[in-house]
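Troubleshooting log. The previous run stalled partway through. Resubmitting the same two chains, unchanged.
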Amino acid sequence: MAKVPIVLTINGERHEFLAEARKLLSDALREDCHLTGTHIGCEHGVCGACTVWIDGRPGRSCLTFAVQMQGHQVTTIEAIAQDGKLSALQQALHEEHGLQCGFCTPGIVMSCEAWLRDRPEPDEVAVRELLSGNLCRCTGYQNIVSAVLKAARQTRGA
Amino acid sequence: MKPAAFDYHRPQTLGEALELLAELGDEARPLAGGQSLVPMMNMRVARPEHLVDLNDLAELDFIGVTDRAVEIGAMTRHRAVEHSEPVTRSCPILPVVVHTIGHDAIRERGTLGGSLALADPSAQWPLLAVLLDARIELASQSGRRSVAAGAFFTGVFATAAEPGELVVAASFPKLAPGEGWGYRSFTRRLGDFAIVAAAATVSLGPAGRIETLRLTLSGVGDRPVRLDAVTDRFRGRALDAAELGRAVAAAVTLEDDAIAGAPFRRDLTEVLSTEAVNEAAQRARVR
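Second attempt completed without errors. Output:
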């Protein structure tokens, strides 16, 4: 099938490339935009590793075609640390040992950062429910839950 | 897993979308939130020649509350319903059940219309639509019509929509004053499709006797199943939810499948029906 020109805005920067309409956003980010922080796990929306923000809201990049994102703002894990400084959640994941192999971590950060913006005082039950959308096969989740709660506490200055 | 090739269309108005669907016929699939269709395409279970992307159709993204009903546009995301205060006030069962769909990021993208049109027999929106006697509005180039939810779902992934017809909205009648509601489901993991789910509404009259009782189950057939033949027998009496649960479990037709055996589904049917009806009765106000 014919490739078409696709113009995306990712992390505020313009990316232009040729791709087929069937190209998933997850593949376009990694292969065409060379943003390899977004990881690809299951490719059917279950594992959460490829989660990015679409117009500021979390979405699975493996369930989105790159061509659909023309005219929208895509944000990836690469935009979360500012000037080399980790976000509160990234720092908390580091301190709480909330990652081991790190494969799921970008998706967890993208899911939780957006969620925490709307819920400054989450309880543990809600955090666990949120994390049901992101598979981690290393940590057993305990330390991820601790890190999310810690980041929320620190963000609200408690 | 990569989808097969397709031609991509991005209509800017409903009229354009309907024209494309009429012109492209069976080769085209409308693309709503993509949270079911795209996994199916990635697995190549679905291989549409043409995708008609509905995501620019802002006219299908709305929530309106009238005197009688909550009207929701087909491209309204689950998340919008989940967090809608007007919906919570006028039909509180909707946001609570919608919150159980998939995961947070899935609810950000998935839509009412996509879920209704797909007609997964285990999904929440079809269950709610059948429970609440919703009407589903369809549009095509030749006009509009609305179909009662009970007649819309015709089988596994099958609906009464004709070729060229698009689900554009659904209207959910509000709960009556004092009418209580309940929802129970069994999933192996949080966010999975339920093996069995039960949703109920109950209105109580003088002396706590049942005036109206609606119960709908998923996971016990090829579409959501309303148990009116059973629940009608319980009207005018004080509620005995345990007896009702047993009667419902005896009334459903079940077969073993790859997910669960029939005896397990029957047990779930009894327990979840009992609990959902109890929860609804607890929320109901005696008039």
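Takeaways: The CA atoms of residues 78 and 107 of chain B lie 5 Å apart. Chain B has a mean pLDDT of 97.
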